[in-house]
């Protein structure tokens, strides 16, 4: 009898929880002059549901920008996100991605009169959701737009002791970009301290920069790996951690802030363009950061580097054509590719065999330079990176980009 009572109670509780959720997306189209977008069930005081993908197409008066202001925002921090695109589709640049608890009054502004907003949730925890107001504005960019940011650097050098002295304080030759896998600057700082690691700078999603270690000191961020003639990367590099989970777009404001900071660093220390690297470019088997979501085309354009690199003369079919892939057979053409990759900086022996080492370098190169064919990584339920075997092939676009880099470095 007691068992039946307990079972009935559990069933009732589960029914109540289910009933307190909504999986029905609100309308898709939102027009001028202003209005509010909300998560499923918000107006009924219900939590949003699992596995939903809601689209909000917002348009304000011609000649205006769209100003989005948070009224209320609570979602699952890791996995349920509101992504705001600066234009009429999800192919437009990302302005910002909100998740977790976002303070009322937080805002984002577009560069035109149209934005596309996506609300995506996973199949686990749900929460109260959001209410975000939209309205026209004629301001000349706010701090969360796609305009070049006024760089704000906050001093956090008292928050870590995990650093040391460089062999030579001014012997700085590389800039290493990472992503954090943590949702906030504070969570990144905690994770670094728990692991007894550090980095010179952290870039928040809103573009604010936090400095943890002096440039002249050796932060513990790069780990093992070789780039060009450099074998101990911590000795000769400056590291920037970019707040990002690894499977989400980077807000344009954040990418532009990283570019602005990078411009200061590469100018001050005369760092060669080819020595601006992702962690994955030399941590080949261990690392995927920065992920394929990072827009190197935008980054290089902001720094004025490699003009024309991302212009292709190949039709789409030739861009995606597989030239070489894993093989136990010797190929003289593969030897030349390996020699050029090594010349650029990748740690690779030119042996003529497209084996595991060459596959890993091809993956890193495609992630960095070939967004047209790169399958972006994801994160599984255990928090592990999910890599794709297709990225380890050598494509027509890979060859075109490598030819450009060799000719311009």
UniProtKB/TrEMBL annotation:
EC number assigned by the record: 3.5.1.28
Superkingdom assignment: Eukaryota
Short name of one Pfam family: Amidase_2
Positions of the CUB domain: 25-137
An annotated Gene Ontology molecular function: N-acetylmuramoyl-L-alanine amidase activity
Gene3D superfamilies referenced in this protein's UniProt entry, alphabetically: Peptidoglycan recognition protein-like, PGBD-like superfamily/PGBD, Spermadhesin, CUB domain
Keyword Cell wall biogenesis/degradation set for record: yes
Keywords linked to the UniProt accession: Cell wall biogenesis/degradation, Disulfide bond, Hydrolase, Signal
Endpoints of the signal sequence: 1-20
BP GO terms, sorted: cell wall organization; peptidoglycan catabolic process; peptidoglycan turnover
Family: Belongs to the N-acetylmuramoyl-L-alanine amidase 2 family.
Protein name in the entry: N-acetylmuramoyl-L-alanine amidase
Annotated organism of origin: Plectus sambesii
Phylogenetic lineage: Eukaryota, Metazoa, Ecdysozoa, Nematoda, Chromadorea
